[in-house]
Amino acid sequence: MAPSLTRREALGGAAAAVALASCGGGDAPPPSSAEPGSGAALITSLLALQRATVSAYGACEEVLRGDSLAQVRDIREDEHRMARELEIIMTGERIEVPPGRSPGEYARTFPRLRGPEDALRFADHLEQRQVRAYLDALTDFPFEGQRETAAGIAWRQGVHLGIVRMLRGLPVAEGPFVTGAL
Amino acid sequence: MPERTDAERLERLLAIEERLVAAYEAGLRRDAIEPALGELLLEHEREHAAALRRALAGSERNPRATVPSPELTAALRSPSEFARFAARLERAAADAYVAASAAMRDERLRQPLGSILACEAAHGVALRQSLGEFLIVD
User: Fold this and answer.
1) Mutation site, B53, B101, B133, B138, interface A, largest A CB count within 10 A
2) What's the per-residue H, E or C state across A151-179?
3) Is B35 helix (H, G, I), strand (E, B) or coil?
4) Does B101 touch chain A (CB under 8 A)?
5) What is the mean pLDDT of chain B?
6) Rounded distance, CA A138 to CA A144, Å?
7) Tell me, what's the ipTM?
8) What's the pLDDT tens digit per position in B39-66?
9) Residues 6 or more apart whose Cβ sits within 8 Å of residue A84
């Protein structure tokens, strides 16, 4: 049976899915046991995005050197920690943690990275999509605790984005609002 | 005391933004921050404050009093002290945005506040870069 989603979850999940489509996602859909309106489908989508991002940074590391490589390694470790944090939350909320895909499966869907410039541009796109996914989750998660987790991770993704932009020689923030505006 | 209404949360964020604006204005006046960086951060904080005022339009305002921080006066002695002080302010602002964006009852405001949060995160990176610190994620 297809998982039952609220409209918000469907919209939020779609945002995460768009991100995954371009960075190697496509993990199994949320388990059918997920309670509608619980945020389970959305957190499962965010976990898939995190895992794909960890794998994508592995591809970036292969073509980076020096300071850029060191910074990207730090970012990748932080992305991995975030994935673990989501898994722990899911376990605590009795949401089935899907197995994910192998590094090879993710790698087949990444663009070819010819050098450091390609890798950092790819990383910039990854971080923008991550920030957007967690900001979407701020609207879509039904419970304040879940939203606080999403906001905390959005902050960390904002730090990553700033670092990647700095490594690209760009201003750390493009404008006063990273996405959207009041 | 925790805020109970969205307007109270927005007022608190506005007070934080005004503190940041005052800090960057003073930093630029006293040459405690590199002008290009200082102008960029100041412009962003002014935009954030203006956006918060717009979001508060129509609410019963209860502005919070702000007083010049003695810490700011001390921080203006050198660019490195100022960068550390500003980075702490940016971090405190980020913490406030994390809590507020999650707690807002008006869901239309959550994402825009998150968008400011992500910008404050980038400011922290720029300030740490100005200190020549290795930008580990903490």
Assistant:
1) B101
2) HHHHHHHHHHHHHHHHHCCCCCCCCCCCC
3) helix
4) yes
5) 92
6) 9
7) 0.92
8) 999 999 999 999 999 999 978 777 776 7
9) none
Structure tokens at B98: 């994390």
Q: Do B135 and A161 touch (CB under 8 A)?
A: no
Q: Give chain A's count of helices (H) and strands (E).
A: 6, 0
How is residue B10 written in tokens?
A: 């927005």
- Segment A10-15 mean pLDDT: 35
Other residues' Cβ atoms within 10 Å of the Cβ of residue B70: 8
Given an 8 Å threshold on Cβ–Cβ distance, is A139 in contact with B111?
yes
- Per residue in A112-141, pLDDT (tens digit) is 999 999 999 999 999 999 999 999 999 999
Token output for A182: 């009041």
Tokens of B106: 């008006």
Per-residue tokens: A55: 């794998």
DSSP letters spanning B89-101: HHHHHHHHHHHHH
